[in-house]
Amino acid sequence: MTFFIKTFGCQMNVNDSEKIRHLLAAKGLTAAPEERADLIIVNSCAVRARPQEKIFSYVGRFPGAKKVIVAGCVAQAEKEAIFAKKVKVDYVVGTHQFCRIGEIVDELRAGGRPGTALAFTRKWQELVPGAAARSSAVTGYVSVMEGCDNFCSYCIVPFTRGREKHRPMAAILREAEYLAANGYREIVLLGQNVNHWHEPGGRRRFPDLLRRLARVPVPWIRFITSYPGYHEPELIEVMAAHRNIARHIHFPAQSGSTRILKRMNRAYSRSDYLAIVGAFRRAMPGMKFSSDFIVGFPGESERDFRLTLSLLDQVEYESVFSFIYSPRSRTKAAALAQEAPAALLKERLIALQERQAVIQLRNNLGRVGTTIDVLVCEAHPKKAGEMIGRSESYRVVNFVSRAPVGSFRRVKITGAGPHSLRGVECFS
Asked: Which domains does the chain have, with CATH numbers?
């Protein structure tokens, strides 16, 4: 039997798909292109309404002869209601049930009826995908915690990923050492609130984990996503003391207005957020940040929106992900009235994205003439002889090179746009 996995959404979904691929390969199934696969697994995202709609549009493309499993966050959110959609689905697998994918496939191969696997568990389910199952031979994802206890008023994650659970440090270290031994050049720690990790039943916390991981021989260590409300000053000390921890953090603000942050049930203020950013930059002057922003949260005034724009100006993010607020079922904000017209919300989103593009272009142009370290990630798919790499701050860098994927190169920056840099390889 052949299979194809389509992944929507975040890096944790990518890592979950790697685990599914590992389990299916262990059962003797073979990966195949979408059009030739007997089994289609759709690992889904429910963070906003539009990605969820795309998933059902995608599933509806397949002929009845194919077996289709909808997995992940949409599966967990919609549950049995998926079978009422006007698409053919053979099984619905929630976020805590990927470990059962092998037996589920056995059921389908034996002609079993459509079913669900949706139970949550508070226990950590240990599963490490082998190198052959991973999406990259350069960057290795390592899950350290899952779930969320914050219940931000707009967010569906506690209902799709469950309550927080934390992976033992020893297991995290084993996977990191495995990746290093297999030539991985970058490790990315994953968790909905990665900086809230703590040793199950123990006293060690995220700075302790990061300090220990810094001994693993990989050039760059990253972690996503950090919640500002869980910030510990010790984290700054650990990062400043270890140069292989990248000077870049994804640090979602969501809004620049303290009033809106309170309505979102975010456990920090604008001034708290800026104080943390300032502390990072005092300890590490080259520290860079990226962020997420929601435009048009119910009750957002023009003043609130202007405060968000001013936060962009103050922090000067490397990049931001920005979206118009999307009501999600079961969340507290779903009951709030949206008074602002859709056209105004779209105008605000465009204004935010245009402001951020100006900031990124200005900062990128400031790098022209400098020489930076670049991790070679892949050959350019459209330009022969060119490689695509990333800087320590996760900026895309395009340059002509014969360097192998996974190597580091010194690159002199010669040009810049708002979203990428161009350079020439240095050989001396």
From this structure: 2-117 (3.40.50.12160), 131-365 (3.80.30.20), 371-425 (2.40.50.140)
